[in-house]
Amino acid sequence: MKKRLLLMNAFSLILLSGCSDDGKVTDSDLALLKTTHPPAVLIDKNTKENLDLVQNIEHDVEKMKELYDVAVVKSNGDTLVAYKVKHLQRFHMKKIEKNMTKMLEEKYPDENFIVSSDYKIFIEAVELQEKMKNPDFTDKKAKKKLDKIIKLKNEMT
Amino acid sequence: MSKKGNKTPEQQQYEKLEQKHELKRPVLKNCIRAFWVGGLICTVGQAITYFYIYFFNFTEQTAGNPTVATMIFISMLLTGFGVYDRLGQFAGAGSAVPVTGFGNAVISAAIEHRTEGFVLGVGGNMFKLAGSVILFGVFSAFVVALIKTLLIIWGVI
């Protein structure tokens, strides 16, 4: 009995030691649990036009009533749109993705969209947006990270 | 001719006596237990999926494979420690239907035939029950994939 108690204590200690981080909880850590509303991010070409464009894209996507959280990241070539779907609407995930792609391509024909409802892609997008706040995080690094996210999105197995 | 007609009066009398003393199967209680334990196992699986999404480079789409492997591994360990047998007795189908039941079927057969030696005992009997799961699983997956391929070729989906 004593041995079992000791084992359980040791196990819970190991489990809890995971919590002893530096105590800083960022939005990307909680992106799975709560609505984060990350601002649209622009990599390279930081012009007013481009900024308006990303914000318009985010605004248009947010208008869809099936969604509750949208993250948009735009670089030179690609525009990543990650979103979270309301729980009961998850049955229509494919239809939502199809409609969104169609809407975006019709409205912004010059852009190349990568659309994803995957939580992981959303978390990574929020993380990228957080890292962009740091001045040491260069555009080159950001572009690399975005490419990594897109590669992750296209992975099937 | 009905079954009852074949029976002698003694047999019929015995049947009546047996019915009087037979314990009723608590179907509703069993269903509720199976529901809760099965749901609990699935919740653990969902937690493991999120663990892989958060801490590793897995997306919602790709996190399924390592999750299944981990769940099977855990149930194999629990079977070895004799915990899963008790859970199986308590929850019935609730513990047998999820993928953890597969791990249990493999290891319990291996333990049962351990005394017959490693080759003919463990090796020969390990997949006695799980073998049919693999066979019909692979076969039905093949049939479904065939149907899907044909539907894609014909342009239905």
TrEMBL record, chain A:
Tell me what organism the protein belongs to. Cytobacillus firmus DS1
- Pfam families documented for this protein: Spore_YhcN_YlaJ
Name of the molecule in the record: Sporulation protein
Task: Output the lineage of the source organism.
Answer: Bacteria, Bacillati, Bacillota, Bacilli, Bacillales
From TrEMBL, chain B:
Q: Where are the transmembrane segments?
A: 34-55, 67-84, 91-111, 131-156
Q: Which UniProt keywords apply?
A: Membrane, Transmembrane, Transmembrane helix
InterPro entries in the cross-refs: Spore_V_AC, SpoVA
Pfam families reported for this sequence? SpoVAC_SpoVAEB
**Keyword Transmembrane helix applies:** yes
PANTHER family given in the database record: STAGE V SPORULATION PROTEIN AC, STAGE V SPORULATION PROTEIN AC-RELATED
**Name of the protein this chain belongs to:** Stage V sporulation protein AC
